[in-house]
Amino acid sequence: MITIQCVDINDLKPDLAAYLSEKLPAVPVIRTNDIVLDPLTRESEISIDDVCTYIETFLTRENINDCILSVDGDKILVNTTSERKINVIRPDFGLLACPHCGLVTPYKEEMDVHIRIHYLF
Ligand SMILES: [Zn+2]
Question: Which is deepest, 1, 47, 59, 119, by most CB within 10 Å?
């Protein structure tokens, strides 16, 4: 059983868990501050090095490059070096979200017009 402590990337926890379940013979359980990886069967072995590699791949894919992983026994700690908590703006599928105020619209033209107002004032 491997525990991944990921308080600093809390918002990404469900995505990371889903990603790891695709890549590893493991069942991820999401808890408040961590993800626990249980082997899928008694025969399947999960190596902590593999898990680290997949976490790194996942973070790269999400364009997060200020995270460091450290291993402590069967625990992996994921920390951001900049003390920032990673927040993800996740609009519903097909919707655009304004990076300045979070306004959501399905229309690109409307968003282009809207974003311009942030530069006017
Ligand atoms: Zn806006």
Answer: 59
